[in-house]
Amino acid sequence: MNADENRAKLAEIVRNTRVFLLDMDGTVYIEDELIGDMKNTLSALRRAGKRLVYCTNNSSKTAAEYQKKLARLGIWSEEDLVYTSGIATAEYLKEFYPGKRVYLVGTDALKGEFSDAGIALAEEDADVGVLAYDTTLTFEKLVKLNRMIVKGRPYIATHPDAVCPAKDVFPPDVGSFIELLHCSSGKYPDVICGKPYKVMGERIARRLGVAAKEICMVGDRPHTDIRFANNNEFASVLVLSGETDAETAERTPDRAGAVADSLNSLTVFL
Ligand SMILES: [Mg+2]
Question: What residues are paired with 20 via a beta bridge?
Fold first, then answer.
C-alpha cells in the first residue's frame, strides 16, 4: 500500500468507526508519558462521537486501577471504558460456567474484581482453574493449578503474552507461566481470553452493542493488537509510536487496515 492509499484507508476507517479500542502502552502513553498531544487527540475523537475503550491484556490490574492511572495522566473521561483480559475472562466464566467454583491464580485486586462480577472463588475443590497475570505467584499456587489441570478440570488463561513490557528486562507474563504448566501437566489452556483471541473481542462488541465493522483497534503490536482486530473482523490501525518501526510494519504477516505514525495522526480525518 503506498502513502496515498494508506491515507485514503485511514480516512475511511475514521469515518466508519464508532468505537476505538485503544491499546495503552506504546499507543496512548509510554510508561508514564503521554505520546504527543494525546489529551487533545482523545478529546477530539470524543467530540466527533467516537467511543473510546482502553483495551489491555494485563490482568494483574483491575479496570479501576487503570482508570486511576488514566485520570492521573489527565486523559480519563467518564464516557470512556477500560476493558481488560481479566474482565473478558470473568464474563466468559459467567456465560459458560455459571455458578461454578473457580480457582483463580491472580492478584488480590483481580480476585476482588471477579467477586464483584459474581464469580464464586474457591481455594479447594474448585470446578474451573484460571491463570491470570499473578505478580504474587507462589509455588503453592502453581501446584494447586497444576493438579487441577492434570485432573482434567477446565483450564482458562486470561491472555498469552510471554513477557510484560518494562523499562529494563521484561519480566515473565502469563505466556511464560502457560509454558511452565505445559511442561508439568502436558496441557495447554482450553481457552485464552485476551488479545489476539476472540473471547475479548466478542464480549466488547456485545457489551457496546456495535457491529464488528464499526470497531477499530489501534495498537503498536502486530501479533497481538492487529491479529486481534483481524481475528474479530475489526478495522485496525498499526501505530509506529511504540515497539514497531516502519520497516517491521512493512514485513509483518499481521496486516493492519492502515498504518499511522501515532494515534494523533488520526485527528486530521475527523
Ligand atoms: Mg502496546
Answer: 52, 216
